[in-house]
Every structure is written in C-alpha cells, then in structure tokens.
Amino acid sequence: MQFLFENVWLIPFYSLFGSLLSLPWAMGLIRKSGPRPTAYINILMTGVALIHGTCVLSVSWQRPAQQFVYHWLTVADLDLPLSIEISPVSLGALELLGVISFLVEIFAVGYMEKDWSLGRFFGLLGFFEAALSALVLSDSLFLSYALLEMLTLSTYLLVGFWYAQPLVVTAARDAFLTKRVGDIVLFMGLVALSCYGQGLTFSQLEEWTSSFSLPPIAATLLGLSLIAGPLGKCAQFPLNLWLDEAMEGPNPAGIMRNSVVVSAGAYVLIKLQPVIALSPISSNALIIIGVITALGSSLMAIAQIDIKRTLSHSTSAYLGLVFVSVGLGHIDIAFLILLSHAIAKALLFMSVGSVILTTSDQNITELGGLWSKMPATSAAFIVGSAGLVALTPGGIFWTFARWFNGEWNVSYPLLIFLAIFNALSALNLTRVYCLVFLGQPQGKSRRAPEVSWLMAVPMVSMIILTILSPLIPIRWTLWLSSVNPLEYSDSFLVRWGFPLIVLSGILGISVGLGIKLDKSWSRPTQFYRRFFQDMFAYDFYLDKIYASTIVALVAFIARVTNWLDRYVVDGAVNFVSFFTILSGNTLKYSGSGQTQFYVLTIMIAVCLLIWSILKSQWLLLWSILKSQW
Fold this sequence. Notes:
Elements: H1 2-6, H2 11-21, H3 23-26, H4 36-60, E1 66-75, E2 78-86, H5 88-111, H6 118-137, H7 141-159, H8 166-196, H9 205-211, H10 216-233, H11 241-245, H12 251-271, H13 273-276, H14 280-302, H15 307-328, H16 331-359, H17 375-388, H18 395-403, H19 412-437, H20 453-468, H21 491-514, H22 527-537, H23 542-548, H24 550-587, H25 595-628
Antiparallel strand pairs: 1-2
Helix pairs in contact: 2-4, 2-6, 4-5, 4-6, 5-6, 5-12, 5-16, 5-20, 6-7, 6-12, 7-8, 7-12, 8-10, 10-12, 10-14, 12-15, 12-16, 14-15, 14-19, 15-16, 15-19, 16-17, 16-18, 16-20, 17-19, 17-20, 19-21, 23-24
C-alpha cells in the first residue's frame, strides 16, 4: 500500500498506456481480430487505475494533504516543477472519475459495437482519461495548463470523430477555437501569477494571497484572466455555444464531456478562487456570468427538440451554479454541486444514448411511449432527473439544504435565483420525460426493445451510484473552505429558504405535467409564442450576433491584411523583381566583348556620378550666397 501511495503519479499513465496500445488497431495495422481488443485493453487499464486510486484513497483518508514535487526544468533562476497533491478531495475526485470512466467504456462497447473505427475511439478516450486524471492530481500551474490543452485537443478529436459529416467538422472546429480563446487569456494570467509569486502551486495560493499585496487594478485583471479558461471549459456565457454543437460527437464521449470534463474546468476554478477573491470585481463577474448562464441556458434547454442538446444546455446551467458559488466564496457548495451534477448527468446521458441507439432518432417530438418498452432506460432518466432537481432526496437536494442551513452567507437574491433555476430545470426534465417516455408510441418508438446488457449494466450501476451519492462523506469538502462560513444568518432564509426552493421544483414539475405538449408546440402560429420559442431555440441568436460583430470584424481585418499583403508587400517585392529582370535584360546587350565599349560605359557612369556630386555642391553654394545677399 505504501508503494502504491508513493507511486500515485502512475494512475494517469495507465489510461495513456492503454491509448498507446490501441494504435495498431486505430491505424489499421491489425485487422483480423477486429477492433474489439482495444476496448478490452482500455477497460482493463481503467480498471487497474481505479483499483490503484481506491487503495491510495483508503491509505490517505486520515492523512493530511501531501505534495510530491518533481523538478522538471531548472535553468539559472528558472524552475518549472511538476507537483501533484495527494488529499481526500483530489483522490475522491479521481475515484469518481475512475468509476464513471470505467462504466462509460463498458457502455461504449455496446453503443459503438458496429462502428468501423472503434479502435480509434478507444484510443482517443484513453488519452482523454489520462489528461483528466492528471489534472485532478496536479498541483502545478504550469502542468495544469498543459493538461487543459490536452483536454482541448482530445475534445476536438472526439467531437470530430465522425469527420465525414460536415456538421461534425464544424462542431469540432468551433469547440476547439472557442476553448482556445479562453486558454490564451488563462495563459496570460498564469504567466502574470508566476511573475508575482515564482514557483507557486495551487496549495500555496491561499497562503500567498494572505501575505502578498496586489494593486487593485492588477488584482482585477489577474482575476478576470484566470476566469477566462474555466469560462470556455465550462461552456459559460459568452463562450457557451460550443457544448451544444459538440453533441454531434458519439454519445459515450458526450457522457464524459457533460459529466467530468466540464467539471475539470470548474475544478481548476475552485483551486484559483483565493486569487480571484482578491478583487471584488472578479468575484462579482463570476456571479454575473453564472446567473446569466444558468437562467439563459435553462430557457434554451426548454425550447430544444434535440434530446442531447436539451441536456447539454442543462450542463451549462448547472456549471453556472458553480460559478455563482465560487464568486460568493462558498467553495464546499461548489464542490458538492460538481459532484452531484457529474453523477446524475452521466446517468441521464446513458439513458439518452440508449434511446438514440434503439430508435435511431434524437427528435423528442417524434418519440413517445418508451416507458413500458424500455423500463431500465426510463428508470435511469427518472433517477438522473431526481438527482438534479431539489425535490427528491438526491445530490442537489442535500446540496441546497446544506447551502441554506444557516452556515453560509446567503441572501434573498440568491434564494430567488435558485428557486427560478430549480423550477426551470424541473420543467425541462419533465417536458423531455413526458415527450420521450409517456404518451402514445410514434413511428420510430413503436418497436423499441431495451438495450443489451453491455449498456444496461453500466446504466443500472449508475442508477445505484446516483441513489447512494448523498451518502458520500461531506468531509471530503471541508478542507476546501477558504472563508469563515459563519458570517451571516437570517432566520427567514434559514427556516423557509430551502422549503421555497423545494416548492419551486414542485411548481416546475406541475407545469411540465400540466402543459399539453402536442405538435403545435413544435411550431406555434401565435406571434409571441413563436418569437420567444425562436429566441430560446436559437440560443438568443448568439451565433448571429457573433457572426455580425466579432466574426465580421475578424473577416474585415483579414481582407485588409490580405489586400496589403497582395498589393503592398507583394507589390514592392514584385516591383524590385521586375526592375531587376528589366535591367538585367537591358544590360545583357552591353556584353559585346569589346574593351573600348566597356571603357566608354565606365567613363559615362563616372561622369554622371561627378555631375551629380557637383550639382549638389553648386546648389548648396548658391543657396548660401543667396541667403547672404
């Protein structure tokens, strides 16, 4: 056990090793066996990593957090260490990642059984998991940024997995470029933070912020730049559209992306919270971004008819809650939201994947009556929804109960925001369930058998995990608190805050059950209903706003620089080339071989040179005499 504890850094390399072993099948070097062995190899490697992490967690449970530092590059005064942190929180997150990854890989074997490039998929998935595992353990700013870049690359490759489809190519490109915008700004912030505190690690940030004084402007700019990276990774406004488009990728990759990948960006945000808290402007920016994303994405989700896009907008909304809690300094609550959301959303996407595979359809208006045909899938959707709505005793239920237990600095605007959010989330999930699982079967759902055991077993396992998630010890999060939670307590909020949130969930479910969801909702004739439906369904026209502003500006600058390059830069170079060719062609006729002709040419050139010199001297002398006269 001590050996496993001291070599915990090996855990990410298990998945990476499985990814490398998949290359012969992914490259088509091995064909006779089919691509199935890559799935078995990666499942085995993930299982080994999960066992290793479980053993280390059992050993380190009662130990304080420890850091292992590896000096990767030391040149003169430059020291770039690669450090990892062993703590109950990091190992608990690693355990959750391992369990979800293991179940998703088994689920993927059944879901992508007939895909011709199964080997390439599992190779990319292994690379994906390696970067995630290393990011959870990382305590180094430099290493974490490098791992975030690996996640960006793997997201691009997995979203564009079915690269023969034009929409897939566009979605992969948009996901990559959108994340790059946030990553570049984050890199600037990390460089600035390293300049202020050389050799800092995440575990040292709280102590550094309490002893180091920054000017207000510098603290604000630093905090805003550190927000940019998680802003893109967590699909928050205004960089929230990529996650919706990323649903063009395979469903197993979507399970990972909507449960643990977006949580990885929020995990980094939680670690950076002590620096962000230095500036009230940065903290308020987090709250504003979270509120806009949570409410806006919830409204977008209600208007979607694609079942995966409905849940992807829900992911952005719940990550908005994390931004709000981090902005308020409620770090324990942020971690609990991440934990509860990751488990429940993984289960929901497994249920959605089963529906898509069985019916070959993603349009919720074309489905119905699946609850009796697919009982396990229907139960998975119900349990996953219960874990996300503060109504039944799921993960979010106990998280909100903890938020309003009198220990945290809560306010009436926060209560109103959470009540509206919970009602919209309940309405959205109820609407999807009624359209997909209730009612009369339609054309594509009349013959819809339950999925095979390769998909059913992971799904049922996630149902059990979602039900048991409230039993996960809360003390995993206690050490994260960087503020004194006993700052504010209002008797009304403590007594009635959480019950009002529960009532909002009941209201959302009642509205979802009471509204008649018929074909007229797919395209209403009333102007006001069509206006709001189009506004929500088309993501508040953000893509068109970007196309007419940022994209148009970049395109205009590109056209201007292209014109300058073609006619100014290239024009000057081409003029020199033309003059050289013309003079060369002219002078070639002077090569007659006669000496007297060469002497004459030299004398003419010397005379012209002397004349130009004398002319300038005479002009200078004449100007002097004229001025004196």
